[in-house]
Design a protein that fits this description.
15% of the residues lie in helices and 14% in strands. The protein contains 3 helices and 3 strands, in the order βββααα. The termini are far apart.
């Protein structure tokens, strides 16, 4: 739920209210009871955490850190025999005279 800031136009009282987006605005000032209690426009405060964001990975011109993959080195060194072409085996159709 967002936090909205309000200020009373009569007494100057300011307060933050935790409300749902669908809730009606607070109409009466909790300090003086006046009807000039208005919602203020303010910037949202949030922080981007984790990897992949400009602030965490790309701000200094650095490349993103690669994800560790334990199987990648083993998979590159081993090639299945059925998919790898045999270097010494010749095509039977090519070798027949």
């Amino acid at each position: 739920m967002p936090i909205y800031e309000y200020r009373c136009g009569s007494c100057g009282f300011e307060k933050e209210h935790l409300q749902k987006v669908s809730d009606a605005p607070v109409a009466a000032c909790p300090a003086c009871g006046g009807n000039v209690y208005t919602k203020l426009i303010s910037a949202a405060g949030f922080q981007l955490k984790g990897s992949g964001w400009y602030a965490t990975d790309f701000k200094n011109g650095a490349q993103p850190k690669p994800k560790p993959d334990a199987e990648a080195p083993a998979a590159k060194s081993e090639t299945p025999a059925s998919t790898a072409p045999a270097a010494s085996a010749a095509c039977p159709a090519c070798t027949s005279d």
